[in-house]
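Quick one:
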Amino acid sequence: MSTSMWIEESKNTSFSFAASGFLAGHKNGGLCPDAVAANILDRIIVGCGSKEDAVKLLFHRMKANLNQSKPSLQPLLCDLAFIFNQVTNGPSMLQDTFFSSSAHTVVCMLDILTLILGIQSKEPKHRETNPDIMAVIRKPLLVICCVLRNPRAYENIAPLLQASFFSLIARAALVCRPIALARKFNESLAQVLKILERFAVHRPLLSAINRGLAVALAINRVRDGPIGKSLRDFQKKI
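Output:
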């Protein structure tokens, strides 16, 4: 029942996304103990036909949720927590799949972050931050950090930069309000920038990073604040 529910929800956007809680596990705010969640995941993989197809459907599920007129952020948090758990607490059922197609994982996480920032940009400036936004906004960057730390990390920097990473971060600096949300986002950003700094010793990557930063900061006119300060400090370091 839980397996077919998850698959049907992922394919049919008219359904809710309640089945996200089946995979997250109790410690990640999910509905099932970890052992039960692992059993459900195993059956989902069989139902999808392969691990690769299960991951594709998971990404499709998340984007479909965020493209609704009223996205369900709690299920999205469960989906992101599930992915983060898979890429950090290995070996796991899908860790190799996320890492073997790591460039795709990075791009999908940036797509998810773009959609989350789109939701946040529509929030009235005076309103307190939605707690669910506060929870989900960090997760895509944390997943990207895990991918960039794997042995094939060098291969994933180019897709990250080609996806206009710095322009996206500059946009985050503009829409992450109040300051508490910007600080929360910046905690994850700092980890990504630390990894990029390490790869800046490679001249082609350094050139791409400098170009991306220059364009992002010039076009978006990033204000002072935690995110803007991190970008400018990073620019000076490299």
